[in-house]
Amino acid sequence: MTALDEIKIGGLGSSRKRVEDDRFIRGRGNYTDDITLPGMLHMEILRSPLAHARIKSIDTSKAWQIPGVRLVLTGEMAAQRNLAWMPTLSYDTQAVLATDKVRFQGQEIACVVADDPYIAKDGCEAIDVEYEPLPPIVNPAQALAPDAPLIRDDKEGQTDNVCYQWEVGDKEGTDRAFAQADVVSRLKLHYPRSHPSPIENCGSIANFDPATQKLTVYMTTQAPHIIRAAVALVAELPEHMIRIISPDIGGGFGNKVPVYPGYVCSILCSILLGKPVKWIEDKSGNLISTGFARDMYFDGELALRKDGRILAARFHADTDQGAFFSDAQPSKFKIGLVHSAFACYDIPVGHITARGAYTNKAPGGVAYRCSFRVTEAMYFQERMIAAAAADLGLDPAEFRRVNLVRDEQFPYRTPFGFLTDSGQYHKCLQIGLDAIGYDQFLKDKEDAAKRGRRLGIGISTMTEPLGAGNSREYDILGIKMFDSAELRVHPTGKAILRTGAKTQGQGHETTWAQIVAHELGIPAADVLVEEGDTDTAPFGMGTYASRSTPVAGAAVAMVSRKIRAKARKLAAHLLEVSEEDVEWELGRFYVRSAPNRGVTIQECAMAAYGNMPDGMEPGLENNAYYDPPNLTWPFACYIATVEVDPETGVWDVLRFVAVDDCGVRINPMIVEGQIMGGLTEAYAMSNMQFITFDEEGNCVGSNYMDYLLPTAWETPGFELHEVVTPCPHHPIGAKGVGECAAVGGPAAFVNAVLDALSDTGVRNIDMPLLPDRVWEAINTRADISGAPPVRTD
Known about the structure:
Layout: H1 21-24, E1 41-47, E2 53-59, H2 61-64, E3 69-74, H3 75-79, E4 85-87, E5 93-95, E6 101-102, E7 108-114, H4 117-125, E8 128-133, H5 140-143, E9 162-169, H6 171-179, E10 183-194, E11 203-209, E12 214-219, H7 224-235, E13 242-245, H8 261-273, E14 277-280, H9 283-289, E15 293-304, E16 310-322, E17 349-358, H10 374-392, H11 396-403, E18 412-413, E19 419-420, H12 425-436, H13 438-450, E20 454-463, E21 475-476, E22 479-480, E23 483-489, E24 495-499, H14 508-520, E25 527-530, H15 548-575, E26 582-585, E27 588-591, E28 594-600, H16 601-610, E29 621-626, E30 635-644, E31 651-661, H17 668-687, E32 692-693, E33 699-700, E34 719-722, H18 740-756, H19 771-780
Parallel strand pairs: 1-14, 12-13, 16-17, 24-25, 31-34
Antiparallel strand pairs: 1-7, 2-6, 2-8, 3-7, 4-5, 9-17, 10-15, 11-12, 11-14, 15-16, 18-19, 20-30, 21-22, 23-24, 23-29, 26-27, 27-28, 30-31, 32-33
């Protein structure tokens, strides 16, 4: 009897094939829209065509006359049940169905329940709504103007369009540092509004059983337990009589964290009718009304010495929140974790101010593949670093070498209060520079310029805070942001694991079993992973903001260790020695003085049910709730080379090198897939995904003719490299990786294009860098703003 080979049993480091894919690639996934319940009805939503208008009247009489229509629900009817408005995850309120006025194009006005979705849609078209148009607001500058119309006149005491103000840092110390600076570098930019656009739209099937008074909801949510708590508050139902089931999810990316009016409407309709009600939104509805991301305006400065050292950083950020402040983010941080900016740089002092504005857009601010506004922070950071290097006349790689935190400085306290615990930033940068052939490319660029070609290279180095977060500082709706795992080992040594997370493409069913294999020596193939059902899963906060491995994965490791601790006692009993004489190696316990005498974890499992020592409780199962002591801090270096066609503004990626340090990698194949997926989204954000608003508040780009998602044809190739610096406080040393590439990637592409235009004096082109914007920048030698409103003539 010897220790097991961890790779062979599918433990840490094994590129085990994703067990989920066995059903997905065969079309056997079980999504919300695949579910049919007896007597099920169908719901469609009527949305506003206007961005800002007072509702004068709603006539539903013609809809009621259509055969097959069972219910027409308006805001006035919902108000009778106190459900016209609902709380958001940011302690604001949001209209379920508009009663007084509409505040964005696509807002929910009414819904129709019918025998099939086509009749329901006909019913919506038969509803006659009379509007009184009001002036629309489509950016924070308009919202904050002295004469701006008040958007949230429903809120008592609200006299302007400001929804929050926030600041962090040392203002006086920062001002002193700027007074001593040799050079002050300044940059203004807009990170445009973008949409996560999961392949599966949002939807729900609400089934209220009048006999048992229990509500069961199948829905597309990344956070089932949080949704259950929210539904209990909104619908005034006891929480133990609510069951949320999140089946297979066709992508989330943060879009499926909020509570949407469609969910609430389907629940209310089911309660009123006593029948199951299904709502599946269409793609246009998803693109114009569900949670947007980004839409942040930066104005920042760096105080610099001539030798390249950064003395201080300060910036102001205005966020466009849309009509309702509904971000799903920690309560304490109104602008998410934007103060993680510059965390990888050794900057002594800094100061940030931020302000949120209501506008006539769908609610924004969701954590689209990022940890609560970190994507915006890192984009501004790396654009600011590139601008500062140019202002000093320094090579951007050397400028980073001067200012990146050194290995011996960890743990490092950032100027905004975070504690980064580990990393090898300089090593990652050097690996990236060597892989891209940095020095040779600079020579090639110079030679190409002589022939009229425009080549550019862009670097992005960043560390991202993941795994929010410790209960001292992090909560949503007052619930601390821990996570959970429950593990049961059956008599034969097979196991079932349930967690409070919810996979939507991350591969939990594969990687969670690998953690159990690492901790207990049970082959990963013998571990079944279940998530997404609030009646069976332990309470958890769900999956978003790259919390899976840092928090839920840690809970899996900790519950496995609890199981191993009990198994050790069983092993001592079976081996007839004291527990202190028992040693562990993967898959078996053995006697310290006689290594050949041992028992397997499977033998211990059988003993737990049939041969336990006197006084021991039978069974081999436990649970763990993991409250992380700190955030985890993966690091990445991304480098892109491009060529820009000066005649058309079209730019092509020549090469892209990614160096990621995400700590210990559970499944290298899945990690690489996450990185490539994130880089694809980064490329799309920088190059082609364009969704914005005109002066009337119309959503421009709410279709896939305009909001271009990259296919394999457009997506460039990526060269991946790795560095491993284990996280010192995570049970298995992992840091998380699901968002890093989408967070740090965009700046590498944009910096590369602007480097190709360095002789023009252009400092900024707002994303996406569409060919017409690049062409205009070349020919006007001026910065190009992409902020709304846009012209549509």
